Amino acid sequence: MLGNLKGLLVTLGVIRRKHVTAQYPDPKKRLSIDERFMGFPALLWDYSNDEHFCTGCMVCVRACPTQCMSGEMIDNPRHADGTSRRRKIVDWFEINLNRCIVCAICVDVCNFDAIEMSHEHELSKYERNGARADLGQLLEMGKKFQADTGWKPTQPEKNTGSPEAVEKMKEAARAESEAKKPEPVAVGKTEARKEESE
Ligand code: SF4
Ligand code: SF4
To answer: How many domains does the chain have?
Structure first.
């Protein structure tokens, strides 16, 4: 009897606590996703030049431990007309998300700021090949991630596609380093200091 009462008191105490779980999949009861949460990988969009960050270099494809990625690069026509710094650009890309183990190796090896672990995690399908995400789907996931998190490239000077935007960044960096330089000491003042010390 006493044991039952003790148990009831514990239950009553727990009821008053803030909920840390939610009933899936009711959208109204969803808990917000933490920024560091790692969902499926997604491709990112270079808004400075309206094109993919991805050059289709295939480094991630070779590094993926489950070999669930594939893709191909082409010569970037916009590089030829001088409107993009990217010589090559992705032509098509696919990730079989059913086989992805969300290890983030593809993100770590990408040197072009082109891929990130998005917050997308609800892509279960009934079909065996239903979770194959193509370039358009991966980009949609990436754009949502960019908008939700205010994502910025880690190496903007290297990876921004717009030649004008990069020139502006370089000018700003030059101006900043100029501003940090110490003022040159006038010759007259130097001599005066020498005399003072003697
Ligand atoms: S997260 Fe890992 S398994 Fe998934 S696509 Fe990237 S490298 Fe492959
Ligand atoms: S995501 Fe990065 S590593 Fe993968 S193909 Fe594109 S540029 Fe290369």
So the answer is: 1
Which residue CA neighbors atom 6 of ligand 1 most closely?
106
The pTM (predicted TM-score) of the whole model is: 0.80
Distance 137 CA to ligand 2 centre (A): 16
Within a domain: 11: no
Q: Is residue 186 part of a domain?
A: no
Which stretches of the chain score pLDDT less than 50? none
**Is any ligand 1 atom within 6 A of the Cβ of residue 67?**
no
The 3-class secondary structure across 58-104, one letter per residue, is: CHHHHHCCCCCEEEEEEECHHHHCCCCCCCEEEEEEEEECCCCCCCC
Residue with the nearest Cα to atom 3 of ligand 1?
100
Give me the pLDDT at residue 146, please: 97
Q: How far is the CA of 155 from the centre of ligand 2 (A)?
A: 14
The pLDDT tens digits of the residues spanning 113-132 come to 999 999 999 888 888 888 99
Give the end-to-end CA distance of the chain in Å, rounded to a whole number: 97
Q: What is the CATH number of the domain that holds 97?
A: 3.30.70.3270
